[in-house]
Amino acid sequence: MKLLDIKLHNIGPYKKEEITLDCNKHNNLVLICGDNGSGKTTILNAIKVGLFGNFLYGLNQKNTTNAYFEQVKSLITNNKKNGSISIEFTIIEDYVESKYLILDLGI
After folding, report:
1. Mean pLDDT of 59-72
2. CATH, domain 2-105, list 3.40.50.150, 3.40.190.10, 3.40.50.300, 3.30.2130.10
3. pTM for the complete prediction?
4. Residue 8 in contact with residue 85, Cβ under 8 Å?
Protein backbone atom coordinates (compact mmCIF):
# COMPACT_ATOMS: atom_id res chain seq x y z
CA MET A 1 0.00 0.00 0.00
CA LYS A 2 1.28 3.43 -0.89
CA LEU A 3 -0.31 6.52 0.64
CA LEU A 4 -0.74 9.35 -1.88
CA ASP A 5 -2.81 12.05 -0.23
CA ILE A 6 -4.42 12.82 3.12
CA LYS A 7 -6.94 15.60 3.79
CA LEU A 8 -7.94 16.48 7.34
CA HIS A 9 -10.70 18.91 8.32
CA ASN A 10 -11.10 19.82 12.03
CA ILE A 11 -8.89 16.92 13.10
CA GLY A 12 -6.44 17.76 15.90
CA PRO A 13 -4.46 20.89 15.01
CA TYR A 14 -5.53 20.66 11.36
CA LYS A 15 -8.41 23.01 10.62
CA LYS A 16 -8.50 22.47 6.87
CA GLU A 17 -5.32 20.82 5.71
CA GLU A 18 -4.21 18.78 2.76
CA ILE A 19 -1.16 16.69 3.45
CA THR A 20 0.40 15.60 0.19
CA LEU A 21 2.85 12.77 0.59
CA ASP A 22 5.78 12.87 -1.83
CA CYS A 23 5.79 9.23 -2.90
CA ASN A 24 6.75 8.14 -6.38
CA LYS A 25 8.33 5.07 -7.95
CA HIS A 26 11.77 6.14 -6.75
CA ASN A 27 10.76 7.43 -3.32
CA ASN A 28 8.88 4.83 -1.26
CA LEU A 29 9.59 6.25 2.18
CA VAL A 30 7.50 8.86 3.96
CA LEU A 31 9.01 10.74 6.89
CA ILE A 32 6.63 12.60 9.18
CA CYS A 33 8.55 15.06 11.31
CA GLY A 34 7.82 18.20 13.28
CA ASP A 35 8.00 19.87 16.66
CA ASN A 36 6.33 18.38 19.72
CA GLY A 37 2.60 19.03 19.59
CA SER A 38 2.60 19.77 15.86
CA GLY A 39 0.26 16.88 14.94
CA LYS A 40 2.43 13.91 13.91
CA THR A 41 0.51 11.41 16.04
CA THR A 42 -2.78 12.99 14.92
CA ILE A 43 -1.90 12.20 11.30
CA LEU A 44 -1.20 8.56 12.17
CA ASN A 45 -4.40 8.25 14.25
CA ALA A 46 -6.42 9.85 11.43
CA ILE A 47 -5.01 7.30 8.98
CA LYS A 48 -5.94 4.44 11.33
CA VAL A 49 -9.49 5.75 11.86
CA GLY A 50 -9.89 6.46 8.15
CA LEU A 51 -8.80 2.99 7.09
CA PHE A 52 -10.36 0.85 9.83
CA GLY A 53 -13.22 2.87 11.35
CA ASN A 54 -14.85 1.22 14.34
CA PHE A 55 -12.95 -2.03 13.70
CA LEU A 56 -9.85 -0.16 14.90
CA TYR A 57 -11.11 -0.39 18.47
CA GLY A 58 -12.28 -4.02 18.17
CA LEU A 59 -15.87 -3.07 17.54
CA ASN A 60 -18.28 -3.95 14.76
CA GLN A 61 -21.47 -2.30 13.53
CA LYS A 62 -23.62 -4.14 16.08
CA ASN A 63 -21.18 -3.58 18.94
CA THR A 64 -20.40 0.13 18.63
CA THR A 65 -20.14 1.64 22.09
CA ASN A 66 -19.53 5.06 23.55
CA ALA A 67 -15.80 4.20 23.84
CA TYR A 68 -15.48 4.29 20.05
CA PHE A 69 -17.30 7.61 19.79
CA GLU A 70 -15.18 9.11 22.57
CA GLN A 71 -11.96 8.06 20.80
CA VAL A 72 -13.11 9.56 17.50
CA LYS A 73 -14.43 12.70 19.22
CA SER A 74 -10.99 13.21 20.78
CA LEU A 75 -9.56 13.63 17.27
CA ILE A 76 -11.88 16.51 16.36
CA THR A 77 -10.48 20.00 16.81
CA ASN A 78 -11.73 22.05 19.79
CA ASN A 79 -14.84 19.89 20.28
CA LYS A 80 -16.36 21.09 17.01
CA LYS A 81 -19.34 19.10 15.86
CA ASN A 82 -17.76 17.52 12.81
CA GLY A 83 -14.54 16.62 11.13
CA SER A 84 -13.54 14.66 8.08
CA ILE A 85 -10.70 12.49 6.88
CA SER A 86 -9.90 11.70 3.25
CA ILE A 87 -7.20 9.18 2.34
CA GLU A 88 -6.02 8.33 -1.17
CA PHE A 89 -3.77 5.31 -1.70
CA THR A 90 -2.78 2.64 -4.19
CA ILE A 91 -2.42 -1.10 -3.83
CA ILE A 92 -0.67 -3.43 -6.26
CA GLU A 93 -2.14 -6.94 -6.49
CA ASP A 94 -1.16 -9.45 -9.16
CA TYR A 95 0.87 -6.74 -10.94
CA VAL A 96 -2.20 -4.51 -11.26
CA GLU A 97 -2.21 -1.16 -9.47
CA SER A 98 -5.56 -0.02 -8.07
CA LYS A 99 -6.21 3.44 -6.69
CA TYR A 100 -8.62 4.00 -3.78
CA LEU A 101 -10.13 7.04 -2.10
CA ILE A 102 -11.68 6.71 1.36
CA LEU A 103 -13.82 9.54 2.67
CA ASP A 104 -14.86 9.58 6.31
CA LEU A 105 -17.20 12.53 6.42
CA GLY A 106 -18.92 13.84 9.49
CA ILE A 107 -17.02 11.86 12.10
Report:
1. 64
2. 3.40.50.300
3. 0.71
4. yes
